[in-house]
Sequence to fold (430 residues):
Amino acid sequence: MWRRPLPDLHFLWLAYSTAVSDKRALTSVGIHDIIARRWSPRALDAEADVSETQLRALLEAARWAPSFGNTQPARYLVGVRGDDTYKRILDVLAEGNRQWAHRAGVLLLGCAVTRNDKGDVPYAEYGLGLASENLVLQAVAEGLAARQMAGFDADAARQVFDLPDGVEPLVAIAVGVRAEPEVLGTDRDVERENAPRVRVPLDEFALRDWGTPAF
Amino acid sequence: MWRRPLPDLHFLWLAYSTAVSDKRALTSVGIHDIIARRWSPRALDAEADVSETQLRALLEAARWAPSFGNTQPARYLVGVRGDDTYKRILDVLAEGNRQWAHRAGVLLLGCAVTRNDKGDVPYAEYGLGLASENLVLQAVAEGLAARQMAGFDADAARQVFDLPDGVEPLVAIAVGVRAEPEVLGTDRDVERENAPRVRVPLDEFALRDWGTPAF
Fold:
């Protein structure tokens, strides 16, 4: 009896604490690594660049997303640190986002084509979501991180990029290399960056009937 | 001069034709395998099951998607071949979708929570798109395939699942094991299943300014 080995609690703790500190998703069954490791940091390295090959990969991933009847409503304005598009996207961000997003190597503005020459495009917002998720997962695959933002002035964006009617700027995305949370400055920002990720439990998310868990 | 070897055209052709036959995305730079291999087949194996572990993985992947202010608007009704939820989802599909989707091992109905007890949820449709892309990519990681459908009767779905106000059924998703295109029956369906995937070119998708390619 005394020979039965105890479970290696130290190892279990190490695995758990590693998962927490890199903010890996905590799931009841394994999920793909790039999905489990994706989260949305604000702390980015103001010196590190996103290479053109990496940036192309992000946009190729988004380009090949599915869409309603292959209508492909997603488009991205692409700014690289130092160029004019980057400056214009940074300028239209909400103040709270500008404070950290100025360290991103790349700033994107995701637009939905809601009307084309065939008329209204259904599910354009949904389609931009499909494409943007591919984009942020490809960022993880590249060793980068991405954070999506709704906090920007859409009217100003329409004006500064002279967007035609039927093109809606819906999301700004900061892409870069992760940095220590301390680059964010205030204790409150560091705390928020280190906070655990939370989600509704699976039994409220996956349903057999409305209000009844599937599992 | 005559010693210079010719490029191995046979090998290039083999690589190209393999990429075409498995419908891998054709990209200017490499992208992650599960993103490159994802497409939306209709030909599914009516005998093959999706295991509970696989199904949980799909839903865990979707659950950990990002969302606006972590509002998490996505929910899924989950039907497994033979159960009541599956039958109800199949019943509300458009006839053209029912003809192939009845072979799926799993049928899902993706809903967006557009209003909760704090009021309207912004970007709920976008958020459901982010979650559903995680779900269909996890399907690829599991060796499965998924096809999203807008063709279903949303009013009937609301009624049959007794969905509360502020919950919008937006997408049905068939998940299963791929089968030969011939299971679809007609020549026209087989031809459509085998057709190459197409997308707008990168220089119309990634822009420095509206109408100006980023690369």
